[in-house]
Amino acid sequence: MPVMTYMEASRQALAEEMRRDPMVWAVGEDLGRGGVFGQYRGLIDEFGADRISDAPISESCILGAAVGAAMMGTRPVVEMRFSDFALCAVDELVNQAAKARYMFGGQTRVPLVVREPIGMWRSSAAQHSQSLEAWYAHIPGLVVAVPATPADNKALLKAAIRCDDPVVYMEHKGLWPLEGEVPAGDVVGEFGKARLVREGGDVTIVSWSAAVHTVAEAAVRLAEEGIDAEVIDLRTLWPWDQGAVLGSVGRTGRLLVVQEAVAVAGFGAEVAAFVAERLHKALKAPVKRLGAPRIPISYAPVLEDEVRVRTEAVVAAARGLVEY
Amino acid sequence: MPSGESSPATNLDVNRHLAQFRQMCRIREFEKAAIKAANERLVLGAIHPSIGQEAIAVGVCSNLRRDDIILSTHRGHGHTMAKGADALAMMRELFGRAGGYSQGKGGSMHIADFSVGMLGANGVVAANINIAAGAAHAIRLKGEDRVVVCFFGDGAINRGPFLEGLNWAGVFRLPILFVCEDNGFAATTRTHAMTAGDGPAARAEALGIKAEIVDGNDLFAVDAAARELIGIVRKGTPRFLLARTYRLTGHTSADTAPYRPQEEVAERWLNDPIDNCRGVLERAGVAAAELAAIARGAEDEMRQAYEMARDSAWPARELAYADVQDVGDPREVAF
Ligand SMILES: Cc1ncc(C[n+]2csc(CCOP(=O)(O)OP(=O)(O)O)c2C)c(N)n1
């Protein structure tokens, strides 16, 4: 299997989809020069400036125009460069894109993809490092994808582009250089299907996006202590793989949810409540969440690291559940 | 304010203008029936009548092809009907009944008829401007010769999408006509009190989009301006039309508009666009009886639409779960 970076994987996915379907086009600030992180590098040479389209700094219009263009039968891929800036287009995404199909009684579809890079990126501070995936999972009509590996970043972006409903596609900025095997050919991901990162019978740890890698590391340490953690990467938050999580917690009797985002009202709360409602009797310990404290992200590395969920915290929390 | 007298009353295409007169009467009667239903609590959500603004909707839309696109606002009944939507399906939507355009999921502020190129009313002021820019963008990408008309009120020019959408249309040279209906008010506030500078047309011009100003209560003036501008727009240049008018009713059917003097409103009723149009047609030799028959026909049609909507079934409960999105069962977590 070819090895490539997380960034290269999604660039390849977009290129392949644009070759496959002439109605697919990308729009956002600085795309002509390859995008802020290089996710679009070289694409303009093959597809031209109409399909790899430079937009003015008008987040609200980038997203609103994508809604109109999607209603007219094209399939826009919108680049928000940092998910933080997508907040300038909340109406367009939440009130327009997400609801048009429903409130117009099924007369239209809005097949657009909004790429919103999330997560901490060294010393980018409070307006360039947020993880707001829970906001979108809350909105009826939106699909929320949070790929953690290069393979998923290719397969899920393809699925997002082929989806007839709006997809919020959140790549993690810290993962751009991550290398991994990516199956060759036209592999299209499936929304709502989790990835079993590691099998184990003592405790289930559910995570997504970059936090999956922290959890995987923690699982190795836990194994050294004789604790077998089962690690699940959700891959998409709506829909999410409720069956995989229930099945696993049913076996282990213990659930830990780990997210980079602020813990309060995060998606981890949804997973925890869902499991607690259904598996109360099977639980050997109370469900547990780990996430960031409810403070904005700082600039200084030492302060930034304060909100980061570290491997040791995951190990300690999992151990605590097993010893409960 | 100039009335019909200043229109070019010579060489009238009487058949065309009779059709426009009929359309204006239909819109007026539709909204009168809707207001009655709202007063009777048969229509529950807010409705925003466009009484007094019919000449703009009809004057503009009668210059569009069926496959051209319009986007509308919270005050969108007139635009929607003028683009060719079915009055009964609209009425059923207001009543929240089966057979409504959105199957009762949208109501007045979310009526759309994609089959006639009406891409939706919108409950968020100015949001339609960006969507319209995108619809025009798609037309350009596909190399089609359709145009987009985006209607909005004078209040919308103070929201960001006005700047962003007009800039976008200029940058990408999109086939879009922006139509600003200046009815003097944004909800209960006189818009000029909340607008710095010289107003909508000056702002459009500042963004490089040529603006024309027209008397929105003069069907013939709107018709002529729209015909010319849509011709230009179809070649790929955005244009702006500012139509001056007056909101003859309250902001919603429930608003008695105590914030403005009765004398002002009474005086404005003397400049009713439908009366203006009737006057021009009479002077051009159309019999008053023929015009009265058209008006009566519109009234009958809308009374029937009201009765049929009132007697229509409610939508099936299961529809609440349909058309949310393809993946993920909306019932899963709630029950
Ligand atoms: C973003 C937003 N803010 C406020 C409102 C509430 N609102 C509905 S209509 C309206 C006035 C709009 O005025 P204008 O654009 O001039 O249109 P008109 O009602 O005069 O047709 C307001 C403030 C809204 N719907 N959307």
Q: Give the proportion of residues in helices of chain A.
A: 25-40%
Order of helices and strands of chain B: HHEHHHEHEEEHEHEHHH
Spatial extent as radius of gyration of chain A: 20 Å
List the uncertain runs of chain B: 1-9
Number of domains of chain A: 2
Which strand order spans the largest sheet of chain A, edge to edge or round the barrel? Answer: 3-2-4-5-7-6-12
Approximate strand percentage of chain B: 5-15%
CATH superfamily of chain B: Thiamin diphosphate (ThDP)-binding fold, Pyr/PP domains
C-alpha Rg of chain B (nearest Å) = 20 Å
The description of the largest β-sheet of chain B is: 5 strands, parallel
Measured by DSSP, the beta-strand proportion of chain A falls in 15-25%
Tell me the span between the first and last alpha carbons of chain A.
43 Å
Number of domains of chain B: 1
Which class of secondary structure composition applies to the elements of chain A?
alpha/beta
CATH topology of chain B: Rossmann fold
Q: Assign the CATH architecture of the largest domain in chain A.
A: 3-Layer(aba) Sandwich
What best-fitting shape of chain B do the alpha-carbon axes yield?
globular
CATH architecture of chain B: 3-Layer(aba) Sandwich
Which regions of chain A have little confidence, pLDDT < 50, spanning 5+ residues? none
Q: Specify the structural class of chain B.
A: alpha/beta
InterPro entries (chain B): DH_E1, PDH_E1_Alpha_Subunit, THDP-binding
Keywords (chain B): Oxidoreductase, Pyruvate, Thiamine pyrophosphate
Domain Dehydrogenase E1 component (chain B): 23-313
Protein name (chain B): Pyruvate dehydrogenase E1 component alpha subunit
